[in-house]
Design a protein that fits this description.
This protein is of the alpha/beta class. It has three domains: about 375 residues, TIM Barrel (Alpha-Beta Barrel); about 60 residues, Oligo-1,6-glucosidase, Domain 2 (Oligo-1,6-glucosidase, domain 2), CATH 3.90.400; about 70 residues, Immunoglobulin-like. Helix 10 runs parallel beside helix 15 and helix 11 packs antiparallel against helix 12. It is globular. Pfam families: Alpha-amylase. This is Alpha-glucosidase.
């Protein structure tokens, strides 16, 4: 099976399943749930970082790429996970962070000595008088420079504990070559590359004067970044039959195609774009506007038409829960099924985030103390400094915090995640939204996902077919998938209102999220997948 035929499922290990009762998810917990994922229809698991880490950014600050975080288990556990997955036809995609390491990484510790051969593995620079080396700001709402004990500064585009690596250093490629081959030799099938288009900086001069992310034009998708991705793909990925999925920062479709490269010079095999994730915000994700489904669907359509292949997602470890964001808690079951219908019928590889298949929602925390995410705490402090009123700061956190996605997986009415106290509080709605309650319920969100995945696998048109948009109006999103004389109509209503649909819906209904009725109107959050017969094409 190629990655284009597969169903991807993202696991955030810390919150998936705890096997030893310490309140933290672990590798043995993942092994215990492989049969659940097999029954769901999963072929590839994207595993968020399990490397050794001090957990300032919960694994995205890596201190050793060749070791497993003891909280998650051992390398022997990891080897068993890969082997047990392979028995079931499930393969793993590892997270790979090449832009930065943890400040606890041996390279960075050594680099603090000005005479160390590792000094230039990072960007250590003197200040300019009483000022920082430049005016850049980080993605976490801070200045992008922090001070060393010797009075110099180091660059970090993310948290202070995540110093940026210097890809101008000739050894940087060689170091990551060792890392990539180490994991490929263990049987990994691919890598999801974190913030992969900001690895290389053109220079360290001041950036343009902008409200957020000063310096972005100095490091976003630079020529050297393209050069290294081509080299990694050609020399390491292709010879091993693997693939690269890129998380890419603030790009349009033309930049996306540049990052995909050409058949002769591949860079990424697919990527996560963010434009559809930005459809409900002003400037940055913390300032939300009312969700406009037509705007959202126009962006989806643009990426469908302008990219040869998409990595389709509505949730991940950095994004709020889609049913809370794009759906309706009043129409919880209907809107969760509707969103899954779109996700699994668009052209490209669908990525399901843990708990999405049961309709998990944003968390119901009551105080800032319940949140663990460093970005959330930094933004709260920055918003307070900017005199943003407390009620709005709380609104920002409630709707956008990454902990909305990171709360533990809801396996049963009592949580089922751990016999101990979870590291992050489980949502109280676990009593009604959980795997156990939905497993034998033929009308559940989980059952709908299973049927939908089977339909996708049984109909090549949903994998290889062209995407042909039909309607984007008043929350109605309709399109055809076409392959030869095969045609499937997908029509959804992303609104809470009844909507008229003037086009033909004749054909065999493969799946819908409401009881069948002969009506031309679409009910609130209704979804239908219809196989159009040959004489109707």
């Amino acid at each position: 099976m190629t990655f284009k035929q597969g169903i991807f499922y993202q696991i955030y290990p810390r919150s998936f399943k705890d096997a030893n009762g310490d309140g933290i998810g672990d590798i043995k917990g993942i092994i215990s749930k492989l049969d659940y994922l097999l029954q769901l229809g999963v072929n590839y698991i994207w595993l968020s970082p399990v490397y050794a880490s001090p957990n300032v950014d919960f694994g995205y600050d890596i201190s050793d790429y060749f070791s497993i975080n003891p909280e998650y288990g051992t390398m022997a556990d990891m080897d068993k996970l890969i082997a047990e997955g392979k028995k079931r036809g499930i393969y793993f995609v590892m997270d790979l962070v090449m832009n930065h390491t943890s400040s606890e990484h041996a390279w960075f510790k050594s680099s603090l000595d000005p005479n160390s051969p590792y000094r230039d593995y990072y960007f250590h620079r003197p200040g300019k008088g009483n000022k920082l080396p430049n005016n850049w700001t980080s993605f976490f709402g801070e200045k992008a420079w922090s001070k060393n004990a010797d009075g110099t500064y180091y660059l970090h585009l993310f948290a202070q504990n995540q110093p940026d690596l210097n890809w101008d250093h000739p050894m940087m490629y060689e170091e990551f070559k060792k890392i990539i081959l180490f994991w490929l030799n263990k049987g990994i099938k691919g890598f999801r590359c974190d913030v992969v288009n900001v690895m290389c900086k053109t220079d360290l001069e001041n950036g343009k004067n902008r409200l957020f992310l000063k310096g972005l034009e100095k490091y976003q998708s630079t020529p050297k970044n393209h050069m290294y991705l081509k080299r990694i793909h050609k020399e390491l990925i292709e010879p091993n039959g693997a693939f690269l999925v890129g998380e890419t920062v603030m790009i349009n479709t033309q930049q996306a195609n540049d990052l995909l490269g050409t058949e002769s010079e591949k860079e990424l095999d697919m990527m996560f774009g963010f434009e559809h994730m930005d459809a409900d915000q002003f400037l940055v994700k913390w300032f939300k506007r009312k969700f406009n489904p037509d705007k959202f669907n126009r962006i989806l359509t643009k990426w469908q038409l302008e990219l040869p292949w998409n990595a389709n997602y509505f949730e991940n470890h950095d994004q709020p829960r889609s049913v809370s964001r794009y759906g309706s808690l009043h129409y919880h079951k209907e809107s969760a099924k509707m969103l899954s219908t779109v996700l699994l019928t668009l052209k490209g590889s669908p990525f399901i985030f843990q708990g999405q298949e049961i309709g998990m929602t944003n968390v119901d925390y009551k105080s800032l103390d319940e949140y663990m995410d460093i970005e959330t705490k930094n933004i709260w402090a920055l918003a307070k400094k900017l005199w943003i009123p407390k009620f709005y700061r709380w609104h920002m956190i409630k709707t956008v915090s990454r902990d909305n996605a990171r709360s533990p997986m809801q396996w049963d009415a009592k949580g089922g995640f751990s016999t101990g106290k979870p590291w992050l509080r489980i949502n109280h709605n676990q009593t009604i939204i959980n795997v156990e309650a939905q497993t034998d319920d033929g009308n559940s969100i989980l059952s709908y996902y299973k049927r939908l995945i089977k339909i996708r696998q049984q109909h090549p048109v949903l994998i290889d077919g062209d995407f042909v948009p039909l309607v984007i109006k008043k929350g109605v999103f309709a399109y055809h998938r076409v392959l030869g004389n095969q045609k499937i109509l997908v029509v959804v209503n992303m609104s809470s209102k009844y909507r008229k649909f003037k086009h033909s819906m004749d054909g065999e209904i493969l799946l819908q999220n409401y009881p069948p009725l002969e009506m031309k109107r679409l009910r609130p959050y209704e979804a239908r997948i219809i196989e159009v017969q040959n004489d109707q094409v």
